[in-house]
Amino acid sequence: MEQMKRAMKLSLMFGLPGAAAVPVAFEIYANVSQWFALVLLGGWITFVGIRFYPLETKPAFVGIAAFIAYTVAFGIVLHAPIHNAVKDWLEENSEYFQLDLKQAGFFWLTAVLLYFLLFLSAILRVAVKRIRANSERTERYIDSAFDDEDGDGFGS
Question: 85: how many CB neighbours lie within 10 A of its CB?
Fold first, then answer.
């Protein structure tokens, strides 16, 4: 139960800033540098994944799902004010660039894939744990198969 509380605390702690980070990354993508924005977003997601890594499997999955849900829900709400603030600031100081539909779609698709990779890394972590456990169990079976304790005649 303590692990689940920690997962929910982490999801809130990172979901709310993540909700602001995605629209900010979108504006950076549109007006500063595309790769810098994607690296920034990927770095944020990697950092969050590292923070969820010490948790057990079920709390980690629930926490990651809640993190993504908070990020999406609050990100939709925060997108309009962040977009308007950045647009006003850039129009006063520089030039604002509006992305066409294809470029905006590429950013959002990349963001979704980065969040999917967070889930994929958690799934891979579970798979690696199971493979290690199975290999250790197999090693014990092989070692005990040739012991003559059970009287089956395989021992020397």
Answer: 12
Domain ranges of the chain: 2-143
Residue 127 parent element (H or E): helix 101-145
Residue 92: the pLDDT is 85
Q: What percent of the chain has pLDDT over 70?
A: 93
Both tokens of 137, joined, read 């169990």
pTM (2 d.p.)? 0.75
In this structure, the number of other CB atoms found within 10 A of the CB of residue 41 comes to: 23
Q: Which helix (H) or strand (E) covers residue 31, if one does?
A: helix 2-31
CB distance 26 to 106 below 8 Å? no
Long-range contacts of 150-156 (CB under 8 A, 24+ apart): none
